[in-house]
Structure formats: C-alpha cells, structure tokens
Amino acid sequence: MAQPLTMSQLDTLTEKYVRASYNDLYTFLSLPNNSRIDGHIQPNIDWLQKAFTQRGFSVEVLPTKGKNPLVFAEHKADKTPAGKLKTLLFYMHFDGQPVQPADWQQASPFTPVLKAKGENGTWQPIPWEKLQTTYNRTDGSREWRIFGRSSSDDKGPIVMLLTALTALQQEHIPIPYNIKVILDSEEEVGSPHLADAVGQYKNKLQADFMMIMDGGRHLSNQPTLIYGARGIASVTLTTYGPRGAQHSGHYGNYAPNPALRLTQLLGSMKDEDGRVTIPGYYDGITIDASVARILAAVPDDPALIQQTIGVTVPDKVGRTYQEALQYPTLNIRGLSSAHVGVQAGTIIPDKAIAELDLRLVPESDPQRLIRLIRQHIEQKGYHIIDHEPTDADRLQYPKLIQMRAAVGSLPFRTEFGGLEDQWLTQAMKRAFGREPIKIRTMGGTVPIAPFIRTLNIPAIHVPMVNLDNNQHAANENLRLGNYLEGIKTWLAIFTE
Amino acid sequence: MAQPLTMSQLDTLTEKYVRASYNDLYTFLSLPNNSRIDGHIQPNIDWLQKAFTQRGFSVEVLPTKGKNPLVFAEHKADKTPAGKLKTLLFYMHFDGQPVQPADWQQASPFTPVLKAKGENGTWQPIPWEKLQTTYNRTDGSREWRIFGRSSSDDKGPIVMLLTALTALQQEHIPIPYNIKVILDSEEEVGSPHLADAVGQYKNKLQADFMMIMDGGRHLSNQPTLIYGARGIASVTLTTYGPRGAQHSGHYGNYAPNPALRLTQLLGSMKDEDGRVTIPGYYDGITIDASVARILAAVPDDPALIQQTIGVTVPDKVGRTYQEALQYPTLNIRGLSSAHVGVQAGTIIPDKAIAELDLRLVPESDPQRLIRLIRQHIEQKGYHIIDHEPTDADRLQYPKLIQMRAAVGSLPFRTEFGGLEDQWLTQAMKRAFGREPIKIRTMGGTVPIAPFIRTLNIPAIHVPMVNLDNNQHAANENLRLGNYLEGIKTWLAIFTE
C-alpha cells in the first residue's frame, strides 16, 4: 500500500476529477425518485447498477418485502488477499422526498440548476457549463449551489463516492479495504422493510465497520462526525366529550370539553421549561464529566441557533443544545379539536386529538416510555381504550381516552475512542488539517439501528452536505464547496 | 272583548284552520333562504309581505346597514282606540342555515317532505296529501314530522302565526292588542346589523312587551317559556414556537413547543370539573333560595340529558343543568396545531391556535371577562400581541401570545313575577291546562338584547317547536303536534 495521500494531494486529485463528475450528478438528479410513485425507482436502480459496475463493483438488486428493492454494490480489496482486510459498509439512499414543483424556484425539481447568490441575497441561476470553465478555489464558486431534489439528500454523496472511485481507479491507487455499499430506496418513507432485509441478507452485509453518508454537517459547516442518532416512537391520544359536537350554549358548563381535558392532560406531562415531569422518563441517562467534555467540544453558537429558529429562551432539558439531544423527547407534533379560524363553530367538540413523537436515546426503551405515559394517563383518572368509545364505554367511564403507540427507528450510539473512531478521525484530520467536530448524538433519526443490532458492528455517521440544504422541502440544494470536500472525504477514507 | 276561548275552543279552532295552512307552509318552506346567497331573501320578503297584508297587517320593508332588510308587519288593535291598548312586539326570523343537500334524506332541503316513523325507527316519507285527509288527534299523526330547512327554525312558527290570524279573522274574533312583528333576515349569521336597525327604527318598534318565537321547547316537549338567554363573546389565542415548523429531532428538547404552551395555559384556566379558576370570573352571580326554587321547578331528567349527549359525569359549574346555565362559560370550541392523522409530520409546530367562546349572563360584562382572561395570561408570563410576531418580538419576549376578542350578542333576563309574566303564563295555562315549564336562562343566544336595551321593555321567549328538530343541521324537521300546539299558543296569546 502506498503512503497516505497528503491534504494537498487529496485536493489536487479532487479538482482533477470533479469536472467530469458534474455530468453524472446532472443525470442522476434528473431521475425522479419518489418511492411511492410507480416507475420512479427503477431508472435510478439502472443508473446505479451501471455506475458502480463501471467502477469495478459487482452490483446486486436485493428484493425486500416492500415495493422497492435495495441496491447492493461490493468491491473486493485490491492486491491483498481479501480475507485479511477489513470490510467497510456504507449506507446511503437514493429515494427523495415528495416534491411540490410549484414551490420550487426553477422549472422542475428534477432539472438541476446551478445558482449563485445575487447582490440582493437571492439565488440566481447561472449556466451549468460554468462548472467546467470558471471553477477554482478562490473565485467564490465554492459558495455556488446546485439546486434539485436529492442534491443533498442523498444523491449528492453517492456521486461524490463515484467520483472518488473514478479518481482512485484512474490513478491506480489501490483501496486496502473490502467495500460494501447498501443503497436504500425507501429511506424517506421510514425504510419500513429495511430491518427485515438486514436480517435476510445478514451474511452478505457482514462488515467490520459501518459508515452512514447522509444528512448535514454541524451548523458551522465544518467537517463533522456523528456517533449516534435518536430513534423515534409515536403516540396518538384522543379524548372524548359529548357524543357528537354539541351546541356550546345548550351544553356549555355541563358537557365536559374534550379539548380542555386534553390540554390539562398534555400540560401535566411537562413543566414550564419543557422538561418531562413523568417520574422515570429520563432514567438511565447521565451526563458525566467525560460526556460533558465531549458535548462541550462541539462549537455550537447558542445565539446563532436561537436566531436561526426564532427562539429566545430554549427549553431546559439539557444545559446546552448538545445536552438536550442526549435525552428522549415528548413532543406535541399535532393538535386538533373541531375547527379554528373561519370554520370555527360555537360548539363543544366531540373529541380532541394529539399526536406526539418521542425521540429515543439508547437509555430509553420505547416500550418503557410508552408504559410510563400510559401510567401517567391512568393516574389522571382516565380509562384507556383502543377504539372509538361505545355507548357502554361512555356510560361506564367519566374520563375516556384512546391511546395508540408505535415504535419506529431505534436509536444508536457508538462510544468515543474505539479503533474505528481513531481510524476515521485520522482520515478526516489528514483531509482537513484538523480534528473534525464530533457529535455524540444527532437529534434526528436514521434507519440504521437494524444494521448495528443485527450485524453487531460500530457505526459512525459521516455527513457531507451543508446543513442549510432545504432537505425535505422545496429548493433543496448542495453547496459546491461541500461537494468538493465530500469527494475529498471519500478519498481520505479509502486511503487511510 | 269576548270571553277568553277555552282550551277546547282553542283546539277546535286550531283543527278547523290547520288543513288550509299546509299549503302556505309548503310554499314558504320551498323558498331557499340562505342570507349569504344573492337572490334568496327577496322572494321570502315578497311572500311575507303578501301573507301579512292579506291578514290585515300593514307591512314595511326596513333597510339596514346590511345586505338584507328587515320585514316589519303591524296590526292596529280591533275595535278599541289603539292608544289605550298594550302593544305586543314579536320577533321571528325567516332566514335559514346553509344546507348541504347531500346530507339530507330527501330530494331537496327546499322541497318539504312529510314523514312518519317506520317500524325500524327510521323516518319514511308519506304523501303530503295525508295532511288533508287522515289527520286527527288519536291516529298518531301528531308524531309525523315535516322535513325541510327552516321548518322549525324559524318559518314554522311564522306560518303558525299566520294560521292563527286567519282563524281569528274568519271567526271575527277581535284581537285586543296592537301587534308588531319584526322579521329578521340575518339571524343565522348573527344579525350583525340588528342593533343599529333597532336604534334607527326605535319609534316604529316601540311596544310594551316583546315575545321571541324561536327555538325549541324544553327537552320534555312540554309548553315552555324562557325568561332569558345567554350572550356570547369569543377569544382567539395563538401561541408561538420556533419561526416556522422545525424538525422534531433536530430541535426536540430545545425549541419550546407552542402546543405544549397552549395546553398548559388553557389547562390552567379551569379545574378538572370544568369550573373556571380565574379569580372573579363568576363574580356577581348568586343562586339564592328563590332562584334555586325556579331552577328546581324545571322537570329536567339528568339521566336523559346525559344519555342524549353521551356523558356520564357532567361538569360541576352548577349543581344541576339549569344552574350551569346561570353562569358564563369558557369553552374551547376549536384547537389546532400543525396536523394530526396521516398529515402529521415529525415537527415542532410554529404555532398553536385555540378558539374560545364565552357564553354570557347578565352579571358577566364581557369586557370584564376578557380583561380577566388577559390578566391571567399575563400572570403566566406571556407578552400579549395583536399581530403575528416580528423577529424583534421573538428576540425580546420568551413567551408570546396573540389574543383577539370579540363580543357578539348580549345576554338578557326578564325576572319572574312581572305583569307580562303573569299574563303570558295565564294564556299558556288556558291553552294547555297547566303551568308551562319556566326556564330562567336558556344556554344559547338570541339577538334580541338590542330590543330590550333600546326599547327598555321586558321580553319572554315562547319556543314552540320540538327540541330534537335538527336545527342548523341536515334533516331539520317540525313535529306536527308542535305545529298544532303552536297555532293554539298564538290563539291563546291573542285572546288573553
């Protein structure tokens, strides 16, 4: 194996091969990729199959119990006997969020557009061809952005990988690892069949270390590694008032109001500072000195976060933003009873509904949290049902509530300091000249717990794109500087 | 003036003239009457003008500041010099609630259908002509119902009046009162211009006593008088979270949740039994022994009420249903934050909205109640604004809320025992052989406070229709027995 490439060599290599990659990026982003729409996914599979095959990978399409299969690409290590080398498993996805074309400031979310920021601060289209001619490191072009669905989430990182592979192939630089890439086609709908598939293809997926190339870097847009993600569960609560909405004059002060009941119940679950007051909810979580040090090392700017989301005083679950992410949440994500605005009637509603989501951390078993919520509700005098109340229910129980709960992705966390952490940190330092930002737990959810649990391997998240990429919304975009640094990251990983 | 007609004479007279009235009822119910739809109201005015003129009334159309005028019909007392006789003012309305024809079990809400209850308990159409041939007091036909918009609310009572007038005219029975009838065309949209019009036409409307012929009898369907109605005010509260909905993973435990804030605030306004806990909210209201006696005399069946609305344990604002109506309400009539059901996203909502209605009693000045709510909100640490928050608002105030309030109809109450009460009670006793049910305050709202305040006269509500008439909903109907007893009631009033 050759001497690891230096930062300067990585930059040179990236810049040498990036121009030829824009055509791939353009073509790939032009393929619609809503997994719920028939006909969207297959052209993407065909494209991926060709792209990885050209780069010396063997590619398989792995059927799941769902509508859309997974794509699996594998590359046996160059030169050295494969058995002795480590195997790296990469997770990415090529499906995208649904689009509302009318909300996009371009002809189509599937016709990529290059834009530069105009003097008035808005994004103005510039010719795609400028990527070939004017690009260099000092002309401001690193701030340009490529707009299109999945530019950041998550096709961009796939093309960064393909570009790095081309560079290594053309330069005859061997990769001293076995590489496995699993490409998900239903990530944006929660990867409902992934856990099953990981079980089914366990032997094929077996690896020493997993990396997830999805999501955005730290808000500062500095190179970032993420060691854990929260999981998610959901709870739906429905309280009941009179059978059918009743005239608020005839029955006001007499028929119990389900919206009042629900507000009192929900309000009792947290204190004024957003901390869950249900005993035991945060059990098992400790922020000791070493964890506190890890969290404090993240260069968050509270003022910037607060300004970004328009909040003056944050909740006090943790002392800092990073600390807050180490705890499970209990979040009201939707609330409804009868109507508001012009549709509002003078009635006592028949029911009131709350949708809650619970972000999970490894210490918080979702079944335990759901049980605690259940007990809290029962202690408030409710009879919990799993159906719309019958007349008999209504006559028997003064306080009725329907509760439904579901567990989605589970959380994961890879502890700091392991071999893989050291190895990956070293690669990032070589590429960028300094330690990456290391985030112990990201707030969101990735569907990779099945890999960690089934394959029993550590995993680290290597986000490459700008956080302000409008992921999941209109005008999703990828910052050109992040695209270049992403290619460099892949090169650094493969040569570490 | 002749000897008052006996109960038996009133029945005979009613039955003699009722058959000829069905044609009027059919024609009048066939005229669409949504005051918000151009062209609906004028044909009704034309019809009323003709009907009252035929019965010896002078009719005027009184323009208001709104789109639709009032109809005013006046009849000078027969025989005796008008100046010495009392003047009775009757309020009714001829506009109707909007209709959703698809929800009606008949061809059109404006094609009246006669129905009898089938053996399976559902309403089955029978020929309209049966009203002419088979009707008598013992064949069950009093349980038949006439289905059509405004059959009960409030065209039915107008046709009952017209029928009574025809009977008295044909029988040459003099009416010893001056009669004024004011017919509202915008009651179902809250009579927004009525107060102004009453001021404008004060002299024309001047009377000694006002009766409101609208709404349903007591649930027992026994003859009923109502001495007061609650008023109404509304409050809209909007709490704010992050600027724009935020990812519940990225910001859960950090960005304050506006739905949680709203639930805690609303939940703090009442206790578990539905009693307002804001100090002073119920000030001025006393249920002394004499009031308690009046309320207890209403033959309510709590079990029946509770079964009707599917509630086991009512709120405890009053000790009984009638007591509950003597207090103002604070009712959550609508609640919304982000989405529930399939639309629910994993987000922290940007805002949460509650719509409240406050039913008013004479002791509860709406401005005072609104001020108390405002103070309560401020004591909970909120900064109250009257607009969507600016970035500056967000940075300055940790807890922001928008509050808007509006006062609608005011309450009224005519105290028991006055001359008019005695006179009307006597007429009802003559017609039905016993004391009517006397309700001190009905829960709902009628737009007649302007009459009472401007004309400074007592008012009593004389409901005639069955309470289960589906008023405001699809399949509105009028029980035939109530139609007959309504005609009799008018005859008794005019001959008392």
UniProtKB/TrEMBL annotation, chains A, B:
InterPro entries: Bact_exopeptidase_dim_dom (IPR036264), Cyt/Met_Dipeptidase (IPR051458), Peptidase_M20 (IPR002933), Peptidase_M20_dimer (IPR011650)
Keywords (A to Z) from UniProt: Hydrolase, Metal-binding, Protease
Domain Peptidase M20 dimerisation: 227-381
Pfam families: M20_dimer (PF07687), Peptidase_M20 (PF01546)
Gene3D superfamilies (UniProt xref): 3.30.70.360, Zn peptidases
Keyword ATP-binding on entry: no
Protein name: Dipeptidase
Organism in which the protein naturally occurs: Nibrella viscosa
